Amino acid sequence: MTAAPILPGVARVLTDLPDGTTLTADVVVVGTGAGGGAVAGELARGGLDVVMVEAGGPLGSTRPGAHIRNAFPAESQLETRYGPEVWSSLVPFAGGTERFGDMRGALAIHSVGGMLSYWSHMCPSPDPDTEAEPAISRSALQELLPRALRLLWANLDIEASGARQQRVMDAVRKPFGDLPAGREVQQLPVAMQRTASGEIEFAGLDALLTPDGCDSATTVRIVAGYPVREIDPGPSSGAGATVTAASASGSRVVRVQAAVVVLAAGALGTPQLLHASGIRPQALGRYLTDHTQMVSRVKLRDDLLEGTPEDDPTFSVWIPASSSRAMHTQISRGWITSSPVLGGLPSWQTADIGQFTGVDPNPENRVSFDSDHVDGFGLPRVSVEFTLSQADRDRAAAMFADHYRVAETIADFRYALEASAMPAGTSLHLMGTHRMGSRDDGTSVADSVGRVWGYDNLYVAGNGLISTRNAGNPTTNTVALGLRTADAILGRATP
Ligand SMILES: Cc1cc2nc3c(=O)[nH]c(=O)nc-3n(C[C@H](O)[C@H](O)[C@H](O)COP(=O)(O)OP(=O)(O)OC[C@H]3O[C@@H](n4cnc5c(N)ncnc54)[C@H](O)[C@@H]3O)c2cc1C
């Protein structure tokens, strides 16, 4: 057995466990992305013994669970180091060799930290009027979202003083000045912090597992490189549940026994595991939603760049989704590889405009499972059926027109506006496949704390729990919902 520290005293990664190993814990969490990390960290801070099981292995390039960008944090490395590393790590789900026909952009990351080791750190919160979960009270969400943002190190200070930050935000505010209170053009929080030695550090799984000023946090154990093949919730009291995982070759089997199971294996992996374990609520895998996405790179106008100091921090400007705009807009320095037209420019002179708009939850948009063929995890192979309705297309068309308006506020049109409409799934924001609801009426898989209908000790977490049409990057929301799930398991009030 190999044990590598993730954070000394906070989490340990266990690999190469001997065949037949059985671990016991209070709670077993399957999957180490944002959903699993949020639940596991909060439970550990609440004093529970938690084992996480992850299909992927620990990352070699950096401390397991830390964000890969910490190895190359400079703005000048965004396109040269960070972007290529992200592209090479995105793989078809569960070791498949083909992309989904209806969702060619849907890819996965299988490693300790899941997508949270690679994400772009943007932390928008959902619009309380149009995007909040109907099953949760507004006041409860208003308490959960700041907790999630704090855990994710969501930060405004580092970029606030930047020359480009201020000028780009002022330029965008002019034509987009008339927006609902709280959803005006503003700085977008970014999941990063400055360390005691002055370096910038980006949040990954490590941020979610930190003790966060709590003395009682126990050490989370992470079993890595073992896809879970089956869960048996068993009786709801005592260590009655069993999670069975097998090494990639299938030659070594590991079991974890616990009182409570939390499935957080991603929007594809969680319904797949429930299905494989014979737990098949009517809504399982259905209501798959996504964000239709459009991105472009522009050269910033000269007046926005004039006198920009060499150490200017990066910038993140946000036009939030709201009742008057069913789309999310972010303007930042991204990691897309330089384009042929703009590629000759120093990349700090450019900005990436990213826009998402929502897809209505529709039971016909779904993940299905082929029990006759297994994938690289030894589980029924996943396929996706997904089409946009006319209303979804109308929103996408409005976003295309809006994209040009946003570009006009900041772009030097002597250079190209290189815009791409991305294939479905490219947002990497798949949602809804194990959605929450307020009633067990066949349209949801779990209740408002993520507990699977009909089970006392089986919970689901991650983007798949989100039930709404929404437009913003989902991780802050997913972490907030994960904290609520942990609160419920810890017996705290969940209004
Ligand atoms: C390049 C990139 C940029 C992004 N940028 C942003 C951003 O700026 N803002 C934002 O909000 N979001 C962003 N995201 C999305 C964000 O990372 C996800 O929303 C979030 O991490 C999803 O968390 P999750 O827990 O639902 O799923 P995942 O992160 O996919 O975690 C699921 C984990 O479960 C594991 N698993 C699957 N099946 C099994 C099994 N059978 N047994 C054991 N383990 C299993 C997987 O290997 C994976 O590690 C980005 C993602 C990427 C990749």
Task: Describe this protein's structure.
- The protein folds into two domains: 332 residues, FAD/NAD(P)-binding domain; 150 residues, Cholesterol Oxidase, domain 2 (2-Layer Sandwich), CATH 3.30.410.
- Helix content is 22%, strand content 23%.
- The strands form four sheets. Strands 1, 2, 3, 4, 9, 10, 11, 12 and 20 form a nine-stranded mixed β-sheet that branches. The chain has a six-stranded antiparallel β-sheet with strand order 6-14-15-16-13-19, covered by helices on one side.
- The model has no long low-confidence stretch (mean pLDDT 94).
- It contains ten helices and 20 strands.
- It is globular and about 65 Å long.
- The protein is of the alpha+beta class.
- The structure holds flavin-adenine dinucleotide (FAD).
- The site of flavin-adenine dinucleotide (FAD) has 39 residues, from helix 1, strand 4, helix 7 and helix 10.
